[in-house]
Predict the 3D structure of the following.
Amino acid sequence: MDPLYKFDDTIAAIATPPGQGGIGIVRLSGPRALAVADKIFHIKSGRLPSECLSHTVHFGHVVQKAAGPTGGAREDQDFDMIDEALLVVMRGPKSYTGEDVVELNCHGGAVILATVLRLVIEQGARLAEPGEFTKRAFLRGRMDLTQAEAVLDIIRAKTEAFVKISAHQLKGDLTAALGSIRERLMDVYTGLEAAVNFPEDDIQQQSRFFRADSAPGGVGRPLSRNSAGPLAATEQALAQIRALIATSTEGRILRDGIKAVICGKPNVGKSSLLNRLLRQPRAIVSPLEGTTRDTIEEPVSINGIPFQLVDTAGILHPRGLIEEEAVRRSRLCMGSADLIIFVLDGSKELSAEDEALIPAVTDKNALIVVNKCDLPLKVDDPIMKKFFPGHAVVRVSALTEEGIPELLDRMFKAAVPSESHCSRNILISNTRHAEALFQAERSLLEASAHFASGLSLEFVSEDVKAAIRALDQITGRDIDMDLLDKIFSEFCIGK
Ligand SMILES: Nc1nc2c(ncn2[C@@H]2O[C@H](COP(=O)(O)OP(=O)(O)OP(=O)(O)O)[C@@H](O)[C@H]2O)c(=O)[nH]1
Ligand SMILES: [Mg+2]
């Protein structure tokens, strides 16, 4: 925790999105949260908010002192009523931030909420920075950094599948997984440090202990409580880290989605296919070649995976500036695609134009779609196998919808590489986490290499320590304030 971070002030923000809604919430957190509420909220029963028990809800009025002279005791005529509202009291440390938290559930109008916020600020609260409530929760140890980040992920999730993963992260599943790796490595580290700091112990025994060929559990005098011995423990930690890294592609896809680019020569039915996949006539379709010029992007969810579908211009030989730009845009999109959907017109034989596009497709993650299968087909399996060995070929009709369910299934399978298809609870979806895990992996590989090369155990110990530090950056146990600020600045105000 940053010793400079001050908790002595009370923060406030509108916690609900801007605009009109059934309710709108103004949230307060800090030592004066209840004192501020005493000044601006009259509970119907006459009790003060600061007299209320934790985790209770109270009906009453948000008020502001009326202009002009007022009496000493609370008299209703001395106050102007701003709104009828519910007050929620959650006392620290068992609150979201770990501090006293008050939430005012007002009517969801922009002016009302701005007025209530002004009132609490006038009574001494200060406007919260983006993510400051969650930052306080983290700094007060209510959650680690992976859990804080999961809060943001849940808010931003584009699909149910990603909400599920984020909820597990919020619950602490990733924290627990990282904790078990850390514990293993700490055992190794303390063992190594003991060996370094007490060299009068039997050095040979120590080195036998760390030997790569030593059988797990069958090694000499234990330096740690892990009976498998440090080297075996390091390898186990490395395997755990790699298992987490292996989930990162799937995690990234669930978070960001898949960019699927529909390409092919003019008139094969790319825009018709886009419309069919979107179930709406988004792109112009016509029998003229070169109908589409701009790229057309639309999101669609396939079995919970967010896809960004991109329809491109089929033009191959541009005539004039506009078509040149169309070709440039198509190429750019194909270059950045996660998945290419290469469309052919099955009612015609493969042409030189189709063939010209093949090299740009075959080295990619691509699905080959033979469209217009409602018409007599002119391309057969041997031709497809010859030109697209190793690629999945799907026959569809954008016109009749034939083959579309199979195409959707193929797209989903092409997007999610693993066997599990989102059945896991822990996925590394955050690049920051993935980078730190790669760093931990590198450090442990260095530890093994340094040990094998007979280098002093001091160096091996440093490597293991570096791996632990990398894990600590993920959980926030060891993180600098600038990075922390950056992470929380992406949050919305009021969270
Ligand atoms: N019979 C049949 N016709 C289709 C099918 N799909 C598209 N078409 C027709 O093929 C023609 C071209 O369709 P588009 O979707 O505009 O083709 P495109 O590939 O986007 O063409 P460009 O934008 O010019 O590159 C239109 O007349 C469509 O009605 C299909 O599955 N079956
Ligand atoms: Mg088109």
